[in-house]
Every structure is written in C-alpha cells, then in structure tokens.
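PAR1 protein: structure tokens wanted.
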Amino acid sequence: MASSMRMSFILFFACSLFLQGTLGEVICETLPTNLCSFAIASSGKRCVLENFQNNDGKLEFTCKTSEVAVSTMAGHIETDKCVSACGVDRRFVGISSDAFLAPQFTANLCSPACYQNCPNIVDLYFNMAAGEGVYLPALCEKQKSNPHRAMMELSSSGDVAPGPVAAILAEAPAPGIF
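Answer:
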C-alpha cells in the first residue's frame, strides 16, 4: 500500500512538472486557431493566423510565428474581453491598416475600454498606424472630438508625415538654382 502511494505521489509530481513547463510557454504553432490572432509567443514574436488549402481543396487555418517582435508582453494571449472592446476579430487572416478607415473600428480602438486596458492590441495598431505615418494618440484625440473629421483627415493623408523622398526634395535646392 505504501509503495503504491509513493508511486502515485511520484507520478503526480512528474505530471505537475510537465504541465508547469508546458502551460507557461506560448508557442504559436501549438495554439488553437481561435486564440492565435493577437497572441504573442514566449519568444516575443507575434502570432499570425494563416490560411491554406488542404489536400481536399478545402480552406483551413493554422497559427504561425511571425517575424514581428514585441519588446514586452511575451507569452501573452489576448483576452476575449479586449478583443470585443477593441472591435477586432480573431478570425481575420492578416491585419490591414484599412481598418482605420472604418469609423466604428477607430471608435472602438480609441475607446477607454480598449485604449486604456488592452496594451497588446493598442501596441499592434499603434505600430501599424505609425507605418502609415499616423500618430495613433492624435487620431484618437480627433476621434473623440470630431470622428468624421478624423476619418476625412486620415483618408486624405492629413496626418501622414512626409516620406523620405518628400523630405529630401524639401531640403534640396530648386532645380537650376545654385
């Protein structure tokens, strides 16, 4: 009886060590597709949902590790509460800056429930907006005061910083003038 009790304890201890090691690590390729989007692997790289055609020609989804590294929040899986508050969808394949053109999306992203409580999603879209030359905090301020104007300025590139060619041309002397 004592040896079976000891064996049970050893088995329990071994299983708990195994579970502790596996539960603490987030690996994109092992995540279910319904948790993939807006997750960050333990390595600090974002997880992305990708689709592919299986051998039967049916569309299937898989979770992959992207090359986009996040300096904080490694091992983070976004909560359903944040996904809902920010108005994002885990089922979308790929993320596009076109989402900013939808007034409802920007309103959700800039809402206190999202902007103040969901740093992972805000960080992702902050970087995406910056890539388009838009400063997300300024867009959110405009969204609060005048949502239609914010969208008009965004779609007309009112918030877009000049690109490198425009900056070089602005500093260069006019053609023919030395």
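Residues 80-164 form one domain. The CA atoms of residues 87 and 108 lie 6 Å apart.

Cheers.
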